[in-house]
Design a protein that fits this description.
Length: about 140
């Protein structure tokens, strides 16, 4: 796989959506994430709550939220770098605060780069319910390769 060509200017939502379709594993693509906004310090994505991500307890499983959070941060870092650069997750710490009900519709993920470095990038992701309440919070560290 090759990354989409870097845009001439700032990275926009369409470029990041193309990156999702071309650089991520098929099962990550099946999360159906939608890039809603690109800001100077991060990105906002929508994660549809689908039946395949809901476990027997009637709520979205944590693995789905963690995968979406990890993906959102890769996109936030890519946006800040002006395009995709190989990287790997060093640390992903997630706290689950509220369940995401099967009928929630979608979860909004807000991924922010807190401290970019030459080799390590630190960030945080908020997973928000439709009413704006925090469902999960993650902190991350990535190594740029």
């Amino acid at each position: 796989m090759t990354a989409p060509t870097r845009p001439a200017g700032p990275v926009d939502a369409a470029h990041l959506q193309d990156l999702l379709a071309s650089m991520f594993a098929p099962w990550v693509q099946e999360l159906d994430l939608v890039v809603r906004a690109v800001e100077p310090d991060g990105v906002m994505l929508a994660l549809p709550v689908g039946s395949r991500h809901v476990h027997g307890g009637g709520v979205m499983c944590g693995q789905t939220l963690m995968a979406a959070a990890d993906t959102a941060m890769v996109l936030a870092i890519s946006a800040q770098l002006g395009g995709f650069r190989p990287m790997t997750t060093v640390q992903l710490q997630t706290s689950f605060l509220r369940p995401v009900a099967r009928d929630a519709g979608e979860v909004t993920l807000v991924a922010r780069v807190l401290k970019p470095g030459r080799q390590l990038v630190f960030g945080e992701i908020e997973c928000l319910l439709p009413d704006g309440k925090l469902a999960a919070h993650a902190t991350t560290t990535y190594a740029l390769l």
